[in-house]
Amino acid sequence: MSEFIKELYYIVAIENIPSVLRHGILSYDMAMRLRHVSVANREVQGRRANKKVPNGLSLHSYVNLYLNARNPMLYTLMCNGSDDICILKLENRLIEFPGVVITDGNAASDWVSFYSLSEAMDKLDLDMIYARYWTHEDPHEQRRHKSIMCAEVLVPNIVAAVHINGAYVSCSTSKKCLSEVGFDREIIIDGDMFFNRQVRGRS
């Protein structure tokens, strides 16, 4: 599957980057022990809090990485004017780590399925996951596609910072902010990934 999945993604507030570089990317439960800025939707997190991965941990005990970062969650963040966010790009070999679970949609969804790597190879709809748009005339199909585009790779507890290869930002202002907080890896400006909506930036 690694030949189709070139990298994995984590959406994060730039303010959290010093902590990420020091402690790694933490699961929701572990991150709650540290001061941090959350970009998560509270309603969605409420659903995730009560969900357990079959034969695995509670959903909040995993780091949730995306297969496609240009997804409905990011679009909502950008439409709401979220400031100072970036997308960390991570090694695709994380999908092979022990205990990793792959979903075929948003893990909080009622109709999502959870797979091991070997199971996921024949189950993921990569064309829909990596589609450019999720809009449909049929509202049900649109909801389904939005969920599929948020397919996740769930890593137990923590992803060490060594697995972070770089980051994407929407504009030069965000690139400057990311550099100023000590991010020492490749920073790529990609407005299209952020739906060509620039973040507000720091005041």
Mean pLDDT: 90
Helix content: 25-40%
Would you identify the regions where 5 or more consecutive residues have pLDDT less than 50? none
**Element-by-element helix/strand order:** EHEHHEHEEEHHHEEEHE
Brief rundown of the structure:
The protein has eight helices and ten strands. The protein is an alpha+beta fold and 203 residues long.
What does this structure look like?
InterPro entries: DarT. GO terms for molecular function: DNA binding; glycosyltransferase activity; nucleotidyltransferase activity. By secondary structure, this protein is of the alpha+beta class. It has a domain at 7-96 and 155-194. It has 8 helices and 10 strands. Strands 1-4-9-10 form a 4-stranded mixed beta sheet, with helices on one face. The longest helix is centred in the last third of the chain and has 11 residues, at 139-149. The protein starts with 6 loop residues before the first strand and ends in a 14-residue tail after the last strand. The mean pLDDT is 90.
Q: Which helices and strands appear, and what pairs or packs with what?
A:
Layout: E1 7-13, H1 17-23, E2 25-26, H2 28-31, H3 42-49, E3 62-66, H4 72-79, E4 85-91, E5 101-103, E6 114-115, H5 117-120, H6 126-129, H7 139-149, E7 152-156, E8 158-159, E9 164-169, H8 172-180, E10 186-189
Parallel strand pairs: 9-10
Antiparallel strand pairs: 1-4, 2-8, 3-7, 4-9, 5-6, 5-7
